[in-house]
Amino acid sequence: MRPIALQPKFVERVWGATSLDPWYPPVDRRIGEVWLSSDDIETSAGLPLGKLTERPEVMGTALPAGRFPILIKFLFTTEKLSVQVHPEDDHAWKHHQQPGKTEMWYVLAAEPDAVIAQGFARETTEAELRRSLADGSAESLLNWWPAAAGQTYFTPARTVHAIGGGLAICEIQQNSDVTYRLWDYGRPRELHVEPSIAVLDWGPAPGPAAPSGRLLAQCPYFATERYCQDGPTLWHSDPERFHLLVVTRGAGLLSWGGELEELRAGQAWLVPAALGRYVVDGTEELEILRVWVPSR
User: Fold this and answer.
1) In angstroms, rounded to a whole number, what is the distance separating the alpha carbons of residues 82 and 74?
2) pLDDT tens for each residue of 172-199
3) Cis omega before residue 8 (within 30°)?
4) Residue among 207, 205, 208, 247 nearest 229 (CA)
């Protein structure tokens, strides 16, 4: 077995950016999302990622074949994203034949005035929300937080949220693309007011999370740890589950069984469950997020 490189997929968005530095070269269109672990992502194993889920030596003994469980993206914003909400599993499977969407954001970079909204600023009623949608003041009901590099936001399904401009974010989520737009600043895109209201949690949300050591977030769908590597460290795969390594800053080396690959910001690697021992060597301020599916 060997670590598997995941090839990024660049997705245009109206709120995206042309400068993706230092993670990717400049582009001539507005890229809002770089997908790193969707089922159709090409891999160095010669198969799309979704096909690798059929291999227990890759996925691990505790995880079933089928849809790849975790979707990781880099987000690059120059404008506010829509005010939106995602359904939980039961609703999403019933109406969209997809899982729900609980997610977390790790802020990679933020301009001085960048903000993130999470939850309502106070208990809000349906009537109040509908009035704000009619008069264009919906975003004023949200709790807006000053965004800064290094912050983590954990956003369960059913939580109303919005991401402001001037941000680079690593988003880690359930592998689902079910999004309900509640408000979109007058952009000519479809809104989903009734589906949003049907699933909304009407209360506040905690905002930036206080990290617990290396652990940034953990829930039934994913867990994420942050590592800053300076020099070589021996790591081990887990026979029960794969790991994903997301390089968020710096450079380094990944070695196993006498083989060697370079690590650089913007990469994602799938560590197969059966890989065994491997070494991560930070050579230039290397920061890695290690992501996996916890035991349920």
Assistant:
1) 17
2) 999 999 999 999 998 999 999 999 999 9
3) no
4) 247
Residue 39 has φ and ψ, to the nearest 5°, of -60, -30
What does DSSP say about strands 31-35 and 9-17: parallel, antiparallel, or unpaired?
antiparallel
Alpha-carbon distance 113 to 165, whole Å?
Answer: 9
Q: Which class for 78: exposed (0-12), middle (13-18), buried (19 or more C-beta within 10 A)? A: middle
The model carries a pTM of 0.96
Q: Classify residue 94 as exposed, middle or buried by CB count within 10 Å of its CB (0-12, 13-18, 19+).
A: exposed
Tokens, residue 203: 């209360």
DSSP-based three-state secondary structure for 140:
helix
What the block records as the tokens of 253 is 């080396």
Q: How far is CA 126 from the centre of its chain?
A: 29
The sign one gets for the Cα dihedral 131, 132, 136, 137 is positive
Task: Please state, in angstroms and rounded to a whole number, the distance separating the CA atoms of residues 117 and 125.
Answer: 18
User: pLDDT tens for residues 222-256?
Assistant: 999 999 999 999 999 999 999 999 999 999 999 99
List pLDDT tens digits, range 83-130: 999 999 999 999 999 999 999 999 999 999 999 999 999 989 999 999
Contact between residue 248 and residue 200 where contact means Cβ atoms under 8 Å apart: no
CA dihedral for 167, 87, 70, 40, sign (positive or negative): negative
Q: Using alpha carbons only, what angle is made at residue 228 by residues 149 and 290, rounded to the nearest 5 degrees?
A: 85
